[in-house]
Amino acid sequence: MFSYYFLLGLRSLRRNPVLTALMVLTLAIGVAASVSTLTILHVMSSNPIAHKSERLFVPEIDNGQLEGFNPQDQDRDDPQSTYMDAMNFLRDGHGERRTVLYGVSAPLEPERKDMPVMSVTGLALTRDFFAMMDVPFLYGHAWSDADERAGADVVVLSQALAEKLFGAVNPVGKRIRLMEAQFQVVGVRKPWLPVPKFYKLIGGGAFSQEDEIMMPFATAIRHEANPEGSISCQGRTDPGWQGFLKSECTWLQVFFETKTGAGRAELQDYLNNYADAQRKLGRLKRKQPNQLFDVMQWLEYRKVVGNDNRLAAWLAFGFLLLCLVNTIGLLLAKFSVRASEVGIRRALGASRREIFRQFLTETAVVGLAGGLLGLALAFGALALIRMQSEQLRIVANMDWQMLGATFVLSLGAAILAGLLPTWRACQVTPAIQLKSQ
């Protein structure tokens, strides 16, 4: 019976074509507006490494000065680590893996004479990063432990940069001139851009571009590669690179990985004991609680999804509700002219339940048509949004989940809008309609 009602619904689209077009268009615009906004919110709030996000932790210890300190302020402007703390975290060896990183940019001199000197951006990090973050390789692999200890001039390139420099060939073993030194290519990374970019929220941006280069942390330190990102300094800083490394400036991001989520308690104990030991050396005078954030807590702490984004989503759904109110009015008008048809069907023995099912199925067909049109409008809206900026280009992309949600939303909205008109259609009195004929 459903297939019969569905065919009736398709035929009903040709009745009152102007009224039907208005219903479909009204529903489609509401669906497109809400789905476009919801898609961006969905991407921004997604878990970028879901299978291990509860085992990756960012530590925070407060090394700020007492002057001007407000104990009620729990959020730090720059919750990164000093070079001293980061090196201690690496040396102490807690967790299954650990890494320290910071953003770098450097001039690259291509061997090809037809290519000018270019500026490339990326990360200086320790080799555990690749296993911790599940970085995929196209060619080669991460640098060795020996390269890391020696601070060797080695580099991992993105696939896009490798193809730009060498073409579609395996460049492992070749050299590039970077920071006025010859770096050997040890690996080429496949396209890899977690969204949000959780490992470089500070100074990099949650929705920034893919990193072009990755080099050993020790190599960047040896070359005195200045940080490309946020730096916050506390107290006196001695001049020169070594003075900067010994200072209380926070500019490094640290991540720990534990074998299981239960390892968090042990890692927290280590962080507390470490902070206590540093206080005995005259540091960490604020005595603030030491914190660990897993990936999703870190995204929340850094307010990757702001109140403005959530407000935009609510406003979009408010607009959808307004469209539904208009759709209800159009459906009432559409069904009211079919009162005589309902009366005849009732007189021939159709129950109110059958009438209800028929008209609700027709409403669902309208919702399906509105969903198809709304999907096309949503794709168009997202394409326009992607043209506005690089960050929006990354987040304004619809995945299969939102694709399914579009149809569910349109059908659900249409059925919800059709409940009142369908119920009104079922209240037709057969005798009155037959007398009026």
UniProtKB/TrEMBL annotation:
Pfam families: FtsX, MacB_PCD
Membrane topology: Multi-pass membrane protein
Keywords: Cell membrane, Membrane, Transmembrane, Transmembrane helix
Gene Ontology molecular function terms on file: transmembrane transporter activity
Top-level lineage group: Bacteria
TM segment ranges: 311-337, 358-385, 400-420
Coiled coil location: none
Gene Ontology CC terms, in alphabetical order: plasma membrane
InterPro entries noted in UniProt: ABC3_permease_C, MacB_PCD, Macrolide_Exporter_MacB
Domain ABC3 transporter permease C-terminal positions: 315-429
Stretches assigned to the MacB-like periplasmic core domain: 20-272
Entry's localization field: Cell membrane
Record-given protein name: ABC transporter permease
Protein species of origin: Massilia violaceinigra
